[in-house]
Amino acid sequence: MKIGYPCINRSIGCTSGRTFRLASYSDERLEETVRGNLRCLHAILRENLKGSILFFRITSDLVPFASHPVCTVPWQETFAETFQEIGRFIREHGMRISMHPDQFVIINAKDPGIVERSVAELRYHATVLDAMHLDGTAKIQVHVGGVYGDREASMNRFASKYAHLDENVVRRLVIENDDSRYTLADCLRIHEETGVPVLFDVFHHQVNPSGEAVAEAVDLCTATWRPKDGILMTDYSTQMPGGRKGRHAESLDPALFEEFLAETAPADMDIMLEIKDKEKSALRAVGSACRDGRWFRPAQSGHNDVD
DNA sequence: TAAAGTCAAGATCAT
DNA sequence: ATGATCTTGACTTTA
C-alpha cells in the first residue's frame, strides 16, 4: 500500500504545472516552461520520498498545450534525458504514478471532433509516462464520459471507441466511477465488456452509489486489475463539512480514514488522497497506513529497478 | 502591487 | 438559448 496526493505540493514553493495563455504561445515559451515544470516535478518527488509518500499524480499541465495543434515541437525528444532521469528516480524508489486528464477528455462523445481531441490528449499523457520508461502500472484515469440521455448507448459507444485506441494508451487506461453520471456498477459492466480496469473512487461512490458496500466495492474493483496493471488504485476523499455535496474536504479526518482502512483490510491498494491540503494530509495518512500494517516499505537498497 | 477578469477543451442542470 | 456549476488555480490585464 502506497499513499499519495495529486499534482500540487503546497510547501515546496514550485509548481510542476506552470502554464501560460494560448495567445502567448511560442516554442521558446513552451520549452522554458517545460524545463521548469520537470525540474519542479523531480523536486516534489524527492520531497515526497522524505515523507515516504510513494504515490503521486503527475499534473496534466506538465507540458502545456501538448495535444493542441499549436504545439509542434518534439518536447519528448528535447527533454528525453530529463524524463528518463525522473523515471529512474521513480523506479529506484518503488514509486507509483498516475495521471488524470481533465473533464474535456470524453471518449464516448457523439461529436467526432471531441473524440479526436480526447484521443490526442490521451496520447500526450501516454507519451509522458512512456518518456519516463515507466511500466504498465503507471495509469491514466478517466471518467466514462457523457450520458447524452441514453446511458446504454453511451456505454456501448465507450466500448467501441475503447477498442480502437492505441495500444500505448490502452495499456495504461483505467476508468473511474464519477460523482454524477457513471456509478461503480456501470464501470464494472464496462469492464466486463472491454477488460478496462476500474479505479475505485470512494467519495464518488458515496455521493453516487450503486449499492455495494465499501469492502465489496474494493474487492470487485481489485478483480479488474491484472498483474501487469499493478494493484488497485483508489481515490479517497470525504465530504467537506458544511460544504456543498460532493465538495472535497479541506483536510484528512484521520478517524474516518482509519475506519476505511479497517473495513477494507486486508485488501492491498494504492490510495490517492484527493484532499485540498495535499501533502499535509498524505503525511498523516502514511502514519495511519503504517500503523495499519499494510503500508509499503521500500527495499533498503532501493533495487526495484526494471531497467 | 493588488485586485479583477479570464483562461483550449464538456456535460448537465437551472433559468 | 444562456449562464452557473463542477473545481480550482494561476496567468494577464487593469486599476
TrEMBL record:
<keyword id="KW-0227">DNA damage</keyword>
<dbReference type="GO" id="GO:0009411">
    <property type="term" value="P:response to UV"/>
</dbReference>
<keyword id="KW-0378">Hydrolase</keyword>
<dbReference type="GO" id="GO:0016787">
    <property type="term" value="F:hydrolase activity"/>
</dbReference>
<keyword id="KW-0234">DNA repair</keyword>
<keyword id="KW-0228">DNA excision</keyword>
<dbReference type="InterPro" id="IPR036237">
    <property type="entry name" value="Xyl_isomerase-like_sf"/>
</dbReference>
<dbReference type="GO" id="GO:0006289">
    <property type="term" value="P:nucleotide-excision repair"/>
</dbReference>
<dbReference type="Pfam" id="PF03851">
    <property type="entry name" value="UvdE"/>
</dbReference>
<keyword id="KW-0540">Nuclease</keyword>
<keyword id="KW-0255">Endonuclease</keyword>
<dbReference type="InterPro" id="IPR004601">
    <property type="entry name" value="UvdE"/>
</dbReference>
<protein>
    <submittedName>
        <fullName>UV damage endonuclease</fullName>
        <ecNumber>3.-.-.-</ecNumber>
    </submittedName>
</protein>
<dbReference type="GO" id="GO:0004519">
    <property type="term" value="F:endonuclease activity"/>
</dbReference>
